[in-house]
Design brief:
The structure is a single chain. This protein is of the alpha+beta class and 203 residues long. The chain folds into three domains: 59 residues, Nucleic acid-binding proteins (OB fold (Dihydrolipoamide Acetyltransferase, E2P), Beta Barrel); 77 residues, 5' to 3' exonuclease, C-terminal subdomain (DNA polymerase, domain 1, Orthogonal Bundle), CATH 1.10.150; 48 residues. 41% of the residues lie in helices and 19% in strands. The protein is built from eight helices and five strands, in the order E-E-E-E-E-H-H-H-H-H-H-H-H. It has a five-stranded antiparallel sheet, with helices on one face. The longest helix is centred in the C-terminal third of the chain and has 14 residues. The protein is globular, with a radius of gyration of 17 Å. The termini are far apart.
């Protein structure tokens, strides 16, 4: 199993990034691929998790070891697969997720794509009281905006963001509902995704 990959960000798409190392391009699925746009053609360290199933061999990547551990905790819950765990991590609000689990707030947890009442209840049963040791002081900083200035966005950046939200499992109806609010903003693709996820979770 691969623990991490150090290499160059060769490609960024709605679902994955490609990390080139030793002449090989590794396709890595990650919570918010466009967060790596600013590192294109630069070297990064990606902490990885290899998912193997009869019909699937996939590599999932994370910007920190703590994020990887949280992913592993999430996929240990019956009913949550890697795609669902990525959607939770991409939300940018891990504190809310942990708080919802600790306070048994099923309503909040069911806002994530693919998480119904039964799965939300299972998340609470399996993870309540077990996350503080995974990412203690790390939670306040996970996927928070880095304070970079907004720049005028092209329609292409918004389209990329909407494709990324679709890849996370949100329905066309849910995405259409927030798209008008996003169009009013001038953001980067990464910022559009963060904003869209906040609207989806708070709506």
């Amino acid at each position: 199993m691969y623990e991490y990959i150090k290499g160059t960000v060769a490609f960024v798409g709605p679902e994955y990034v490609v990390i080139e190392n030793g002449g090989i391009g590794f396709q890595v699925l990650t919570p918010n691929p466009f967060a790596f746009s600013k590192y294109e053609q630069q070297n990064v360290t990606m902490y990885t998790y290899q998912h193997v199933r009869e019909d699937v061999l996939a590599l999932y990547g994370f910007s920190s070891m703590e994020e990887k551990r949280l992913f592993e905790k999430l996929i240990s819950v019956s009913g949550i697969g890697p795609k669902g765990a990525l959607a939770v991590l991409a939300s940018g609000e891990p504190q809310q997720v942990v708080s919802a689990i600790e306070q048994e707030d099923e309503k909040f947890l069911t806002k994530f794509p693919g998480v119904g009442k039964k799965t939300a209840r299972q998340m609470i049963l399996d993870l309540k009281g077990k996350l503080a040791d995974v990412v203690p002081e790390f939670f306040p900083n996970l996927f928070h905006p880095d304070g970079t200035e907004k720049k005028p966005a092209s329609s292409g950046e918004l389209e990329e963001a909407l494709l990324a939200l679709e890849a996370l499992g949100y329905s066309a109806r849910e995405i259409k509902k927030i798209s008008l609010k996003l169009k009013a903003e001038s953001l980067t693709t990464d910022q559009y995704i963060r904003k869209g996820l906040q609207l989806l979770l708070n709506g």
